[in-house]
Design goal:
Binding site for ATP: 15-20, 123
Number of strands: 5
Bound molecules: adenosine-5'-triphosphate, (3R,4S,5R)-3,4,5-trihydroxycyclohex-1-ENE-1-carboxylic acid, magnesium ion
Order of helices and strands: EHEHHHEHEHHEH
Number of domains: 1
EC number: 2.7.1.71
CATH architecture: 3-Layer(aba) Sandwich
Distance between the termini: 30 Å
Organism: Comamonas terrigena
CATH topology: Rossmann fold
Number of helices: 8
Shape: globular
Binding site for Mg(2+): 19
Subcellular location: Cytoplasm
C-alpha cells in the first residue's frame, strides 16, 4: 500500500458497523466520511435497490467499480470510505482498495449480524424468507475476500459499537494513519 495514503476504508458485511463507525470517526478526526452506496445513489438519483431492480446486479457492479476507483484516487485529502458489502466480489475493487487505502475489516459472525439486523427492513439483500441463512451464505462467500484485502481485522464479537469505534480509532492513530485528536 502507498505509505502516504490518508484513506481509511471500512469493509464488512451488512450490519458490521461501517456507517456507525465511519460517522463517528469522521467527527473524531474532522475528515469526511463517504459511503460508496450513497455516492452511487447521488449519481443515479435513487436508492441502490431501485437501480438493482431496473438494471440488474452486473450494471450495479460496473458503476460501483467506477465509483470506488474514483473515491480511492489520491488527491491528498484524508477521508474515511465505506464500501458496499459486495464490492470485494470484484478483483479490481480488491486491488484498488488494498493498494490505496488502509483497509479495516469489521468482522462479525453471521449470528451476531442477524441479532443486530433481525428487525431491519432497509437492507434489500436481507429481505428474504430466511435472513439468518442468507447472512451465513454471505459470510461463507465473503469472509476470505474481506480478510484478503484487510490491513487490520477488527473482530467485533462482544464489542459494543462504541468499543468497536474505539478499537479502530486507536489502531489507526497508533499506526500514524491520522493524527490523534481529542474527541469532541
Ligand atoms: N459492534 C456493534 N455492536 C452492536 N451493534 C452494532 C455494532 N455495530 C453496529 N451496530 C448496530 O448494527 C446496526 C447496523 O450497523 P451499520 O448500519 O453501521 O452497519 P453497516 O456496516 O453500515 O451496514 P450496511 O453494509 O448495510 O450499510 C446499527 O443499528 C448499529 O447501531
Ligand atoms: O452486499 C451486497 O452485495 C450489497 C450491499 C449494499 O451495501 C449495496 O451495495 C447493495 O445492496 C449490495
Ligand atoms: Mg452502512
Amino acid at each position: 500500500m502507498e505509505s502516504n495514503s490518508k484513506i481509511v476504508a471500512l469493509v464488512g458485511l451488512p450490519g458490521s458497523g461501517k456507517s456507525t463507525v465511519g460517522r463517528h470517526l469522521s467527527k473524531r478526526w474532522g475528515i469526511p466520511f463517504i459511503d460508496s452506496d450513497h455516492e452511487i445513489e447521488a449519481r443515479t438519483g435513487g436508492p441502490v435497490r431501485d437501480f438493482f431492480a431496473a438494471h440488474g446486479e452486473a450494471a450495479f457492479r460496473d458503476l460501483e467499480q467506477a465509483v470506488i476507483a474514483q473515491l480511492c484516487a489520491d488527491n491528498g485529502q484524508a477521508r474515511i470510505l465505506a464500501t458496499g458489502g459486495g464490492a470485494v466480489l470484484r478483483e479490481a475493487n480488491r486491488q484498488v482498495l488494498h493498494q490505496h487505502c488502509h483497509v479495516f475489516y469489521l468482522k462479525a459472525s453471521p449470528e451476531e449480524l442477524y441479532q443486530r439486523l433481525r428487525n431491519d427492513k432497509t437492507r434489500p439483500l436481507l429481505q428474504v424468507d430466511d435472513p439468518a441463512l442468507r447472512l451465513r451464505e454471505l459470510f461463507e462467500a465473503r469472509d476470505a475476500l474481506y480478510a484478503e484485502i484487510a490491513h487490520y481485522v477488527i473482530d467485533s464479537a462482544r464489542l459494543s459499537s462504541h468499543q468497536l469505534l474505539h478499537r479502530v480509532a486507536m489502531q489507526a492513530e497508533m499506526a500514524g494513519i491520522v493524527p490523534a485528536r481529542a474527541q469532541p
